[in-house]
Amino acid sequence: MPTGRVRYYDADKGFGFLAKDEGGDDVYVRAAALPEGVTSLKRGQKVEFGVVDGKRGEQALSVRVLEAPPSLSKAQRKTPDEMAIIVEDLIKMLDSIGNGFRRGRYPDSKLAGKTAAVLRAVADELEL
To answer: Tell me: the pLDDT tens digits for 24-48?
Structure first.
């Protein structure tokens, strides 16, 4: 069975994507493929899964969680003062992107990548 890590999973929508360890395209995973009692997967979590070819690419079957998701401990958490600065900078960044959208432009890929990384990092801090 292939192994990989959770690339993305939305528990509300009941699906996500897994990145195989040996590379290749991402594998689609539905909530029905999760083990009994598991309702969600976290980004970075190591899993083992069967694969079947679907209409739009590979789909995961019989997902088995191999390790807990990587997480920050509360001791590693940023202070509220540090988070306030980060959030204020994030607001400025998002405001700039929003202004571009109002002018009918998407952000360039470099700015979009940086923004996505900051959003993920802030989300990780908030989930502790």
So the answer is: 789 999 999 998 888 889 888 899 9
* Secondary structure letter of residue 104 according to DSSP: T
* Apex 126 CA angle, 10 and 91, nearest 5: 95
Number of residues assigned to the chain: 128
Secondary structure (DSSP) of 35-52: PTT-----TT-EEEEEEE
Residue type, 118: V
**Pair (61, 8) in one structural domain:** yes
Nearest to 29 by CA among 39, 16, 45: 16
The whole domain housing 58 covers 3-65
Domain count, the chain: 2
State the Cα–Cα distance between residues 92 and 15, nearest whole angstrom.
31
**Cβ distance 42 to 29 under 8 Å?**
no
